[in-house]
Amino acid sequence: MFKFLLQRLLIAIPVLWVAITIAFILVRLAPGGPFTDERAYPPHTLEQLQRHYGLDASLPVQYARYLMGLLRGDLGPSLTQGGRTVQEIITTALPISLELGAWSLLVALLIGIPAGLASALKPGSALDHATMASALIGICIPPFVLGPLLVLFFSLQLGWVHAAGWNTASDRILPSITLGIVYAAYIARLARAGLLEVLPMDYIRTAHAKGLHPIRVIGIHALKPGILPVISFMGPAIAGLISGSFVVETLFHIPGLGRVFVSAAFNRDYTLVLGLVAFYAALVIACNTLVDVALAILNPRIKLNP
Amino acid sequence: MKIRLSDPAKNIAKRFFQNRLTRISLVIVLLLSLGALAAPLLSPYAYDDQDLDLGPVPPQASHWLGTDDLGRDLFTRLLYGGRVSLAVGLAATLVALGIGVSYGTISGYAGGRTDQILMRIVDALYALPFTVFVIILMVVFGRNILLLFVAIGAVEWLTMARIVRGQVLALKDQTYIRAARALGFSHLRIMVRHMIPNMIGPVIVYTTLTIPRVILLESFLSFLGLGVQPPMSSWGLLIRDGARAMESYPWLLIVPGTTLCVALFALNSIGDGLRDAMDPRHQRAT
Fold first, then answer.
1. Yes or no, beta carbons of A29 and B140 under 8 Å apart
2. Contact A170, B246 (CB under 8 A)
3. Separation in Å, CA of A53 to nearest CA in chain B
4. How many angstroms away from the CA of B66 is the closest CA of chain A?
5. A133 at interface of B, judged by CB pairs closer than 8 A
6. Among A6, A281, B109, B182, whose CB has the most other CB atoms within 10 angstroms?
């Protein structure tokens, strides 16, 4: 296990470096810059700003400086949010996005797994067909369609919750559902497929035959191997939640990382964009590693390969 | 004497058309594509025809699906939007197909260390948050529609490369490939003439399933304001405009939203249908 984690870490470093380098090249190829505003700065102010942020140096020098800073754990100052550092911005916005992600994941698991279970226990039944049909529809409704529709219905028509914002507890409901429901649909399908493979196995029959309570048989003996596909799906799901957060946070005016990233990209805030790319890449790598560890714990036959 | 074998293509087609959901989906996709192609014939308006005196009106006889706040006919914009969305879907999928098939074939065929390195690169790329890069790319190079094809295609080729590599590894040791090698055919010829035609099945299936993913990604970008730019129209853009105006004019959101969902649903179920038809062992979830 320790060796596996170490190897993963060693692979993560070049991946992160590639991600940052690609992002650096991309943002720097961009026409315009962080100080291109509707009203142009006077030339000497612009010059001072560029000197202050080290943007007057040649690109390779800036690149080297950025990497050196990164090694020290310094992501630099934001170029457009007067005086705040990238770290500060990330640490303010991250808890909000994490909370949104956690709620969405909870929605996905709490709907997806019971639905998949119910389907798998009675394959071919009306319940199974209804569940799988809803899952199929759920997969085809992207968050940027579902979100506005939910707002239209639940806040504009019924007035139950706010249309936007992130202040009261009820403000969490619509964004989490918007972001989580697609994954609930995927998880329901995966859980059903996984369980259908496990349920006809001999050891399940044995467990039933030796008189174990059905809840114990299904909930422990069948569910553990049966949800392996769901666990494997968590890696891509986390990556999907990140891109979903761009839409959902913009849509509901949630001051999380997704919204920060989209506006940073629009404003060409180089350091903020790079910092977030590094952060997102590290997050995805970490989650994938966790998923692999979880799979290996749940299924001893799986060997941990870096 | 001639031995009559059942034609596999015919069998696939038969199984494909047996499924009702697949048949319905096929009709939906055909209708949407025809509508997009024949947009100028079906509608008396142009996609950017404004009628500011009229403003936004709900669906009625002269405007079947109503108009937006600039008085543009929604039905027309939906048809033209379908053009963009479907064209991006097809073009970007072709880009992904091209990259994925050549990369996967080369990797699997070369084998050994080359294969390992190439596949490690794919693994590493999988770990990158790709939408992040697409967003940067679109911001940086200013929402050029051609670039949109390339950017999306460049993101979606990874899985294709993996699938193709797996196929090549399975084919590589077949006797006819060894025979071709023994006959001294060039590697390129073996790959292009003998291997690629024999793995067409899984490739077609995955290609069909890539199209809705690409359409979704394009709509996602357009929704964020990074894809197709007004006054052009695409489904994602219409949804974005609709979401802004939904409080007073809900049809502007509901109509394009439903269209996109139905299109995604139909394309996905055609892909599933193809997979079931080509691989009868694989059973569809519903």
1. yes
2. no
3. 20
4. 18
5. yes
6. A281
**Paired strand residues for A77:** A85
Residue B11 resides in a domain: no
Give pLDDT tens digits for A52-106: 777 777 788 888 888 888 888 888 888 777 778 888 899 999 999 999 999 999 9
Burial B149-166 (b: 16+ CB within 10 A, else e): bebbbbbbbbbbbbbbbe
**Which range of residues forms the domain containing residue B151?**
21-33+53-282
User: CA-based angle B223:B227:B231, to the nearest 5?
Assistant: 90
pTM of the complete model: 0.83
Identity (one letter) of the amino acid at A116? G
**Spatial distance between the Cα atoms of A65 and B85, rounded to a whole number of angstroms:** 42
pLDDT of residue A108: 93
Number of domains in chain B: 1
- List, for chain A, all residue ranges whose pLDDT scores fall below the cut of 70: 31-34, 36-40, 302-306
Tell me the CATH number at B277.
1.10.3720.10
pLDDT for residue B75: 87
Taking only the tens place, the pLDDT of each residue in B244-255 is 888 888 888 888
Cα separation, A33 vs A45, whole angstroms: 14
Does the pLDDT of residue B283 top 50, yes or no? no
- The phi, psi pair for A77, rounded to 5°, reads -85, 150
CA distance linking residue B91 with residue B18, whole number of Å: 29
> Which of B132, B219, B264 lies closest to A277 in CB terms?
B132
Asked if A262 is an interface residue toward chain B (Cβ–Cβ < 8 A), one would say: yes
**Which residues of chain A does B243 touch, with a Cβ-Cβ cutoff of 8 Å?**
144, 147-148, 251
B171 is a domain residue: yes
ipTM exceeding the 0.95 mark = no
* Per-residue 3-state assignment (H helix, E strand, C coil) for A212-261: CCHHHHHHHHHHHHHCHHHHHHHHHHHHHHHHHHHHHHHHCCCCCHHHHH
Cis peptide before A306 (omega within 30 of 0): no
**In a domain? residue B38:** no
Give me the residue label for tokens 């553990």: A224
Q: Do B247 and A152 make contact, defined as CB atoms within 8 angstroms?
A: yes
CB A94 within 8 A of CB A257: yes
Spell out a b/e string for A155-170, using b for 16 or more CB atoms within 10 Å of the CB, else e.
beeeeebbbeebeeee
Contacts of B137 in chain A (CB under 8 A): 26
Phi-psi region of A124 (alpha: psi -120 to 50; beta: other; left: phi over 0): left
Write out chain A residues lying below 8 Å of B255, CB-based.
none
Note whether B92 and B218 are within 8 A (CB).
yes
Cα–Cα distance measured from residue B136 to residue A262, given in angstroms and rounded to the nearest whole number:
9
Mean pLDDT of chain B: 83
